[in-house]
Amino acid sequence: ESEFVTALKQATSGVGGSWSAPDEDEESYQPKIGTWGAFPRPKNISVAYGGGKRVGAGVNPDLESREREEQNDLEAKERLQRYKELAGIDCVSEKENIQEIEEALAIAKRAMARGLYGTAASSIEKVCEYCSTNSKVGGEVFLELAMAYEAVGRTEEAKTVYTELSNSRITDIKNNARKLLYGLQAIEFMRDEVKAKSFSKKKTTQEFIDVAKIQIADDYDTKRYNTAYVDLSKNMYKTLTQSVVRTAQEARNILVRAQYSGEEPRLKIVQALRFINREFSAAISKEKELKRKNDEPIKVVLMNGKPIATKKTYEETMETGSDNFRLGSAEQMRETMDGEWRLQLIADKRGDGVKYFNSTIAWQYLDTDKMKVTSCRPNGWVTFKECGDLDFNEGLREIVRVNLPGSGGILGSFLQDPSALAQQIMFVDSVLLVCRLADKKAASDEDAKKYFSVWRRVEKGTYSDAS
């Protein structure tokens, strides 16, 4: 029997050995294969580490597990709240000032609907510090502010707000901001890169019709009704339309060519001077406004704790004039007008006449370093040569002679003008110096005939003693 049992054990064991049941009392075992780990592990890992528990209907977790779950939920909610506050999704200041924010937003929307864009922007700026771009209310506030900025002409600030809102966590706000930013950038591209006239900063108030090129009225495609009758057989309309000066470069070229009578039509010369005069007046007005704004204390508007725009210096914001006319700085003008100039022509303010100075020599030498002026003018059979001091008003681009007999405007003595009114430098470069009378109210009918003057640069020493 013992031999039979021994044979049975050998039959149920491994090769050359016997099999025995594992010890039930052992709680862990040592893995035999190295890739399973080098340390002992529990025989039932699920039971040892909390697994294998049945949770369902009719089974209540123990008190310790419930307290642990409640603590985990509370910590998760606190972490989520801290994240929302940090990201601006849940803004405490918005909740505390929600009534004021809603009132400001309502005022802004009504103002925008009525075209009062400045009022809309001012209303929203008062509550921006309470709002976040990542909240629903704050996103709506800043989107309204950006549209008001764009409408009122504060393009850079509008782009800043649109860009920030493009990363908002509110989907509707983010999508709308991206669309509006794209539209704004497209307009700037068409205006600055493509140079499309329809996107010009200064649009014409009335559509120009070149009637000289229209043979049939129906050939002109326009969306507005044209009730005027135009007789194309009349040369007057052709003359008027062909005399229109549209750019500063065109105006300069006309004046450069107008050295002698007959080289340029008189009407064309007057139109060129009027164009420069009109653009110069607009540029001076804009420059004054920029200086005034630069002197005012800036109102800092915060967006997510950072200012939307920083105050720029006057030099950084100075870009006056229309798309094709740039007013030179006072310092640049003063430096450029230094030299010797010969009077080329004078023109009537009303456009009645242009007088050339071909056979009659009238000149002036401007020394802007020493602020001295030397002038020579004909007076009948006598030629007067005078020397004196020069005063330059940088704000008005105005030059005045002082300490001279009948002192005043540089041009005055040349034109036998005893009042000698001051002159404004509208345009100056390496070839031309274009002036106008400075004091419009003091100008008499006789002065109006001498309103514009064009000077041509000559080499130093041509007429003066300068070298």
What does this structure look like?
With 467 residues, the chain is of the alpha+beta class. Among the domains are: 92-199, Serine Threonine Protein Phosphatase 5, Tetratricopeptide repeat, CATH 1.25.40; 330-458, Lipocalin (Beta Barrel). The chain has helices spanning 2-11, 45-48, 63-87, 92-96, 98-113, 117-125, 136-152, 155-165, 171-192, 235-242, 248-257, 266-295, 314-317, 330-336, 410-414, 445-448, and strands at residues 28-29, 41-42, 302-303, 306-307, 339-347, 354-356, 363-367, 372-379, 382-393, 398-402, 423-428, 432-437, 452-458. An eight-stranded antiparallel β-barrel has the order 5-7-8-9-10-11-12-13. It has a two-stranded antiparallel sheet with strand order 1-2. A two-stranded antiparallel sheet has the order 3-4. A hairpin with a 4-residue loop joins strand 7 (363-367) and strand 8. Helix 7 (136-152) packs parallel to helix 9 (171-192).
List keywords for this structure.
467 residues; alpha+beta; 13 strands; 40% helix; 15% strand; elongated
Radius of gyration using CA atoms only: 42 Å
Distance between the termini: 143 Å
Largest sheet: 8 strands, antiparallel, barrel
Question: What oligomerization state is this entry in?
Answer: single chain
User: How do the SSEs run, as a string of H and E?
Assistant: HEEHHHHHHHHHHHEEHHEEEEEEHEEHE
Fill in the CATH topology of the domain at 330-458.
Lipocalin
Task: Quickly give the CATH architecture of the domain at 330-458.
Answer: Beta Barrel
Strand order in the largest sheet: 5-7-8-9-10-11-12-13
**Mean pLDDT score, rounded?**
73
Tell the overall outline. elongated
Distinct helical segment count: 16
